[in-house]
Amino acid sequence: xxxxxxxxxxxxxxxxxxxxxxxxxxxxxxxxxxxxxxxxxxxxxxxxxxxxxxxxxxxxxxxxxxxxxxxxxxxxxxxxxxxxxxxxxxxxxxxxxxxxxxxxxxxxxxxxxxxxxxxxxxxxxxxxxxxxxxxxxxxxxxxxxxxxxxxxxxxxxxxxxxxxxxxxxxxxxxxxxxx
Length: 179
Fold this sequence. Notes:
The protein is an all-alpha fold. It has helices spanning 11-24, 40-50, 71-76, 83-93, 103-125, 132-141, 146-151, 153-163. The protein is globular, with a radius of gyration of 20 Å.
């Protein structure tokens, strides 16, 4: 559900009512808000607690206690995952894929896909609790020639930014990890 409208027209009230109803009915509910702290969280939390459902909050606001999720840990522990598909999804998530009409973009996307697939395949062979921070380190520290380094510069930059987000790089057993 995407709620759009002018300021002060009731988007938060409408959204919190819809989300609270979904929680009451047992639907897993994810809310992405654009406010510093969205008041609808109170309604969703109350709805979850009233029917004994778990409520977890993941936020990038450094002032709020938060949960987190190590996406890569969940992917790497599943033996049915294929490295090239995981790498492709990560590139899409990092907004590094390219349209088919953009031949130069396809060159860079292909080089990034190759490096990410190789790195993920190596990690999947000897699964440990890895995070995107570990992938960023492995790719950044990999010895490459000048042209290959240039071709994956955007990937290195995107991974280094994601590696700085603590909520996405939780260690195994962290009490704030949403497993």
